[in-house]
Amino acid sequence: MKPFQKILVATDFSPHSALALQLAADLSRRYDASVTLAHVYEPVTYALPQGYQLFTEPQLAELFQAFEKQLAEQKQAALAAGALRVETQLANGFAASEICALAERGGFDLIVLGTHGRKGLSRVVLGSVAERVLRTAPCPVLTVRDKR
Questions:
Q1: Position 54 in a domain
Q2: Which of 75, 84, 110, 112 could lock 24 by a disulfide, CB 3.0 to 4.6 Å apart?
Q3: Is the distance from CB of 120 to CB of 128 less than 8 angstroms?
Q4: Does residue 62 contact residue 111 with C-beta atoms inside 8 Å?
Q5: Residue 121 belongs to what domain range?
Q6: What would the pLDDT profile of 63-92 be if each residue is shown by its tens digit?
């Protein structure tokens, strides 16, 4: 197996994602690999009356500015944890599909993401981005789960 050169870390800014980031930083150091932190904004998919907007353009701009700030903070955390080269990307769409598309377009060798480890009804209702990424990713996927 060839060493990883490009690692994509999908983050939702949760504690599970923080663990995934720490592991990716360690892999970056070990393999001299670059890390790209990506967050996907998944718009609400509720049926809304025609002409109704959930967010106005200024509200969306403010939301994306907050995401960029969080990504910048995570980038600093990755560098502090030993990652060698770190970039960030912000995407918009269905999370699992966007993560896999980013991985394919960017030629990533590995996707690292946290998983909440939900079971039963909560998994059925909330779904699992990690599971969908595992099934459709163009490269190996490493999931990280908090033991608590």
A1: no
A2: 112
A3: no
A4: no
A5: 6-45+67-144
A6: 899 999 999 999 999 999 999 999 999 999
| Strand partners for 86 | 35
| Helices and strands in the chain, H and E counts | 5, 5
Q: Is residue 60 part of a domain?
A: no
DSSP SS3 for 84: coil
pTM, rounded to two decimals: 0.85
Residue 95 corresponds to which tokens in the numbers above? 């999370």
In a domain, 50, yes or no: no
The position carrying tokens 């598309």 is 101
Whether the per-residue pLDDT at 126 is higher than 50: the answer is: no
Q: How many domains does the chain have?
A: 1
In angstroms, the CA 36 to CA 9 distance is 6
Q: CATH number of the domain that 104 lies in?
A: 3.40.50.620
